[in-house]
Specification:
This protein is α+β, with helices and mostly antiparallel strands. It contains 6 helices and 11 strands. The protein has one domain: RNA Cap, Translation Initiation Factor Eif4e (2-Layer Sandwich), CATH 3.30.760. An 8-stranded antiparallel sheet has the order 5-4-6-8-9-7-10-11. It has a 3-stranded antiparallel sheet with strand order 1-3-2, with no helix packed on it.
């Protein structure tokens, strides 16, 4: 999982090495001097340093960690006066680990959203709808959440997000995104894949999801989008059950 902490800025002075006192007559012998120089070189190679302000000061820059793909967060708030497409709001996109955590820590967790709302996280340029070109031939692994605390719900959604952006499953090219639906009777989390007829990829993704999320048996169902479009809710036939 992605558990990266940002480094704090550290100022390093090139003259900050301890100087020998003028009253002392201590010198490094050749071997110690060579070891000292090697240590400095290794330290400089390991640390990202930049010369600034002409003051012979070096600044340690905090590195960001790139993700394999750029991801976009969507938010849907139920409004019967609008079409389903108009209810979808594109929030922002990110492609760095640190930017993901910054976003996640500044939005409401799913448990605090209004009933009827959705969060969706999809690869950039893929919209969270069945009709999108990247989705229309695919399907989704659906996790039905009947009884669960707010903390458990939020943790499960976060775990799904980390699996996606961390490329924790095989056949990552098949992964399109994930959706959490907040409803009055039960909540759902679904992981969308691109090709519902790629049986090998679908099943390997499903087994990995069940293992990583610690799901009980028979709580993960794969539904084809074409079936979901023609039927609703429990009437949708599952292609696979794990």
């Amino acid at each position: 999982m992605l558990l990266v902490k940002q480094n704090s800025f550290t100022m390093l002075d090139s003259d900050s090495e301890a100087h020998t006192d003028s009253s002392q007559d201590l010198k490094l012998d050749n071997n110690k001097q060579q070891q000292h120089q090697q240590h400095q070189q290794q330290h400089q190679q390991q640390q990202p340093l930049q010369l600034v302000s002409g003051n012979n000061q070096l600044v340690e820059l905090p590195l960001k960690h790139p993700l394999e793909h750029t991801w976009t967060l969507w938010y849907l708030e139920n409004d019967r006066s609008k079409s389903w497409e108009d209810m979808q709001n594109e929030i922002t996109s990110f492609d760095m680990v640190e930017d993901f955590w910054s976003l996640y820590n500044h939005i409401k967790p799913p448990s605090e959203l209004k009933i009827g709302s959705d969060y969706s996280l999809f690869k950039k340029d893929i919209q969270p709808m069945w009709e999108d070109e990247a989705n229309k031939h695919g399907g989704r692994w659906v996790i039905s959440i009947q009884r669960c605390s707010k903390l458990e719900l939020d943790k499960l959604w976060l775990d799904v997000l980390l699996i996606l952006i961390g490329e924790a499953v095989q056949h990552t090219e098949e992964i399109c995104g994930a959706v959490i639906n907040l409803r009055s009777k039960s909540n759902k989390i679904s992981i969308w894949t691109a090709n519902g007829h790629n049986d090998v990829a679908v099943m390997e993704i499903g087994h990995k999801l069940r293992k990583l999320l610690g799901l009980p048996p028979h709580n993960l169902q794969y539904q084809l989008h074409k079936d979901s479009m023609s039927k609703q809710g429990s009437l949708v036939k599952a292609a696979y059950i794990l």
